[in-house]
């Protein structure tokens, strides 16, 4: 049903890069010439997906470290009321009323609420992270400063060697039995420009994101890629400095940047 690949290398396949991507800022790959824009931390909407099961184990580390650099811009999306952490985050805990399970439906439910919360804000960038991520806020702002929020940007990093191939579940008649697309791994973090998020509104806002996830029967980060790459035809721009737990530590050279770490796994954004 789904053509999963093993863990990805540090870049996409050579053929895809040569055919579809051009040089971006700092020698990275992008699908258009990024237009530098003045970006500050106040332009960001940072969502952190968590669950009541990990509040005590993971949130204190975040609150003592990078949260202090973006406390007004960071929101925690969870599945239960928690008076203690509501106070410690100064009211930045959002109970999604989604299940506390880690299944596809629960994950898509939370991502749907995250996306709607961003759309209801006036922020220029939506950046999603998990509760075991450490975010270098300063470096994140610098990276986003190389891109224009008024253009369509889907910034992240895949963790598969080739585009994901799934069954085409669109109503017939359709010509292709399968669909292929890239998606940014949620565990590495990803960012969307406001322009792109606004284009997603008719398709994915108001809970429709969950419906799409159910239709393709895949989790939240894959559903995000399906919507953006397949439905909207907007390509993923690879930011190689995003690192996830799927990359062996020995292959990651730490450059002053974002170290994401948690119980049993560590992730970097350089």
UniProtKB/TrEMBL annotation:
Keywords: Glycosyltransferase, Membrane, Signal-anchor, Transferase, Transmembrane, Transmembrane helix. Its main location: membrane. It comes from the Eukaryota. InterPro entries: Fringe-like_glycosylTrfase. Residues 39-253 form the Fringe-like glycosyltransferase domain. It is a single-pass membrane protein; Single-pass type II membrane protein. It is found in: Endomembrane system; Membrane. It holds the Pfam family Fringe. GO terms for cellular component: endomembrane system; membrane. Coiled coil: none annotated. One of its GO terms (molecular function) is glycosyltransferase activity. Belongs to the glycosyltransferase 31 family. This is Putative fringe glycosyltransferase. It comes from Panstrongylus lignarius. The lineage of its organism: Eukaryota, Metazoa, Ecdysozoa, Arthropoda, Hexapoda.
């Amino acid at each position: 049903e789904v053509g999963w690949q093993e863990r990805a290398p540090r870049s996409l396949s050579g053929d895809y890069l040569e055919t579809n991507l051009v040089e971006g800022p700092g020698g990275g790959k992008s699908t258009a010439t990024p237009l530098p824009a003045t970006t500050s931390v106040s332009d960001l909407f940072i969502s952190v997906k968590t669950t009541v099961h990990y509040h005590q184990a993971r949130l204190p580390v975040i609150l003592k470290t990078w949260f202090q650099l973006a406390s007004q811009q960071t929101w925690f999306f969870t599945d239960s009321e928690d008076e203690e952490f509501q106070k410690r985050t100064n009211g930045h805990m959002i109970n999604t009323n989604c299940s506390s399970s880690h299944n596809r439906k629960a994950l898509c439910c939370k991502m749907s609420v995250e996306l709607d919360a961003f759309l209801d804000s006036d922020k220029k960038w939506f950046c999603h992270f998990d509760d075991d991520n450490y975010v270098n806020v300063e470096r994140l702002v610098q990276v986003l400063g190389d891109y224009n929020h008024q253009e369509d940007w889907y910034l992240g990093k895949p963790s598969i060697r080739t585009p994901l191939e799934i069954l085409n579940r669109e109503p017939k008649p359709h010509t292709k039995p399968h669909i292929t697309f890239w998606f940014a791994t949620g565990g590495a973090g990803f960012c969307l420009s406001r322009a792109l998020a606004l284009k997603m509104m008719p398709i994915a806002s108001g809970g429709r994101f969950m419906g799409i996830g159910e239709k393709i029967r895949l989790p939240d980060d894959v559903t995000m890629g399906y919507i953006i790459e397949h439905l909207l035809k907007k390509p993923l721009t690879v930011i190689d400095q995003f690192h996830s737990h799927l990359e062996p530590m020995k292959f990651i050279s730490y450059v002053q940047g974002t170290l994401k770490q948690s119980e049993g796994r560590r992730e970097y954004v350089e």
